[in-house]
Write a structure and sequence with these properties.
The chain is an alpha/beta fold. The protein has 4 domains: 38 residues, no CATH class; 222 residues, P-loop containing nucleotide triphosphate hydrolases (Rossmann fold); 59 residues, no CATH class; 172 residues, 2-Layer Sandwich (Nucleotidyltransferase, domain 5), CATH 3.30.420.240. Helices cover 37% and strands 16% of the residues. It is built from 19 helices and 18 strands. It has a 7-stranded mixed beta sheet, sandwiched between helices. A 7-stranded mixed beta sheet has the order 12-18-15-14-13-16-17, with helices on both faces. The radius of gyration is 27 Å and the shape is globular.
């Protein structure tokens, strides 16, 4: 049927170049696809690969390293993962698909499936222009970079113009020789009216939209951007897929899952699917004592839903992030959130601490002076500069002191210098480094003039605040963070109680998070002639928990590998 419709146009090539001819040709392709006569190949996607007879077998054979467990063993897809792939393989160009929304657990292959799916759409020509949407532009860029690697592995060539230059293979856009385009878009930078040449997006992938610290206002803003700036850009054959866990009770995906969302009304919701099934509501984990007297959490009950996240991996993640976080992130038991990221009862008070502990002082800077008499609104309650002293000994942490003020840059420098002298040269000093040249200039000023003679490190903060807090929250929930009794305790605990709520400061929590980083991940830094810092800083925020669990062991392992007898030779 399609050939009969297109035959006259093929004979009259000049007519086919007209707007009427092109429109008629596209209508014919769409009609053929709707009648089941094969995909409607767009004018831009002239090379079209036939779908494999067994798509799932092709997927496992083509991407074996993406579909295996940490031991390198191939694993079959879980039933809910196959559901996503059946939806994707059913796509045909020019034909719309019902929206697919899935709620999967942390470490359950969410982003990997979307990235692989996008690569398959490009390879087989099932879509011509897809948007990969995340909460932030950085997250979206990271995922698109992974897709670029997949396309290169499949032998897909990038688009080249007539002058031999790339037409788009950048951090936020991929354009292939065959006419496929993918854009990375963060909700923090989303723009209206997205299109590529004459085409509007016919595919949208939603990933990592919700974050743990999202307020009601933040969620409303995200939904507003989605419904007014992104979804309206799609063409008539738009297909939307979204896969995420439930980090909060009222986020975008929570509303899509429970029916509150008043958009994407054609959606099919798969899940929520937990990491383990048949777990009781209470007493689903146990505390065990291992060799050396240390304690660990175990999972005596429940069955893993996917071989790629077996019981051993679930227990490892449970011990990394703690029972509460595991219940939320992996079991979707969002009732455990209770509206709190941190709880003041997790921080015990103490009047002593081990004097042999390693100590760091972390400074979280604010560029605001004390408010004047005419200050109004946010200006009347600006952020604080905070310097927090934390000690670590055998996996336990003590917050020893908190210094905070609102002052001019000169006043802040004076406090930092005075505090360093009181702490002594044995305390490492860590500084938060803002992005851009100005941030580097500030830290350089402190290194060269304010803190000359002291050990000074910097941390260029990336990722979301919720991800950065998780390692500290896991340690505190396990009872491993104590506060030395002092006049600053009340203000610190009040901030902990309200962190994430609109109108409340989080400067002390930011400093505590930075100090915890410095004592865990920060301890992996090597001398300047051989440093692991670029590699560690390049890792994605999704790996925070695993990095925090293994960070302390990295230097010792390198010392043995290089034949160094003293750990200090590495540190």
């Amino acid at each position: 049927m399609v050939d009969a419709i297109l035959a006259p146009l093929q004979e009259r090539k000049e007519a086919a170049r007209t707007a009427w001819g092109q429109g008629f040709a596209q209508l014919a392709r769409m009609a053929g696809a709707a009648l089941g006569e094969g995909p409607a190949v767009s004018r831009r996607t002239e090379v079209f690969r036939a779908l494999p007879a067994e798509p799932l077998r092709w997927l496992l054979a083509t991407f074996p390293t993406y579909l295996q467990n940490p031991r390198g063993e191939a694993v079959a897809l879980a039933a809910h993962q196959e559901e996503f792939w059946r939806w994707l393989w059913a796509m045909r160009l020019g034909v719309g698909e019902r929206t697919f929304i899935a709620i999967w657990p942390r470490a359950g292959g969410k982003s990997t499936s979307l990235e692989l799916g996008l690569a398959c759409l490009a390879y087989f020509g099932l879509r011509r222009y897809v948007l990969y949407i995340c909460a932030t532009q950085r997250q979206a860029n990271d995922h698109l970079a992974n897709v670029a690697t997949l396309l290169e592995g499949l032998g897909i060539e990038r688009a080249i113009n007539k002058y031999g230059f790339s037409r788009g293979w950048a951090i936020d856009r991929l354009r292939t020789k065959e006419g496929f385009t993918a854009d990375a878009i963060g909700l923090d930078t989303a723009m209206r009216g997205v299109r590529m040449d004459e085409f509007r997006p016919d595919g949208i992938f939603l990933d990592e939209l919700d974050e743990q610290l999202d307020t009601a206002a933040t969620i409303d803003k995200k939904i507003d951007i989605l419904t007014r700036a992104i979804l309206p850009t799609g063409d008539a054959a738009l297909a939307v897929a979204g896969v995420q866990n439930l980090p909060n009770t009222d986020g975008v995906f929570a509303q899509l899952a429970d029916g509150r969302a008043e958009f994407l009304m054609d959606r099919y919701v798969s899940g929520p699917h937990p990491s383990l099934v048949d777990l009781p509501e209470q007493d689903w984990y146990e505390e065990t004592v291992v060799e050396g007297g240390s304690k660990r959490w175990s999972l005596p009950r429940g069955e893993p839903v996917w071989a790629g996240q077996d019981r051993a991996q679930c227990e490892a993640l449970l011990n990394t992030i703690g029972p509460r976080a595991f219940a939320i992130e992996c079991l979707h038991r969002v009732q455990h959130l209770g509206g709190r990221v941190l709880m003041r009862t997790w921080f015990r008070l103490t009047e002593d601490w081990p004097r042999g502990a390693v100590c760091v002082r972390y400074w979280d800077f604010a560029a605001t002076d004390a408010p004047g008499p005419r200050a109004r609104g946010r200006a009347a309650d600006p952020d604080w500069t905070v310097g927090l002293l934390m000690a670590m000994w055998q996996g336990q942490f003590w917050v020893l002191d908190v210094q905070r003020l609102r002052a001019t840059p000169q006043g802040v420098e004076a406090l930092v210098m005075q505090t360093a002298r009181l702490d002594g040269p044995g305390v490492e000093i860590w500084l938060e480094e803002e992005g851009g040249a100005s941030g580097k200039a500030v830290t350089a000023q402190y290194r060269l003039h304010v803190l000359a003679g002291y050990t000074v490190r910097t941390w260029h903060v990336t990722g979301t605040k919720g991800d950065r807090i998780k390692p500290l929250a896991a340690a505190a929930e396990a009872g491993n963070v104590a506060l030395l009794v002092g006049a600053w305790n009340s203000a610190f605990l009040e901030e902990v109680h309200h962190v994430g709520e609109p109108g409340w400061h989080d400067d002390q929590v930011d400093a505590a998070t930075g100090a915890h980083y410095a004592l865990t991940l920060g301890r992996t830094l090597l001398p300047s002639d051989f440093s692991l810092r670029p590699a560690l800083e390049g890792m994605t925020q999704r790996k925070w928990e695993a990095r925090a669990q293994t960070a302390v062991a990295i230097p010792a392992g390198l010392a043995r590998r290089w034949g160094l007898e003293e750990l200090e030779d590495v540190l």
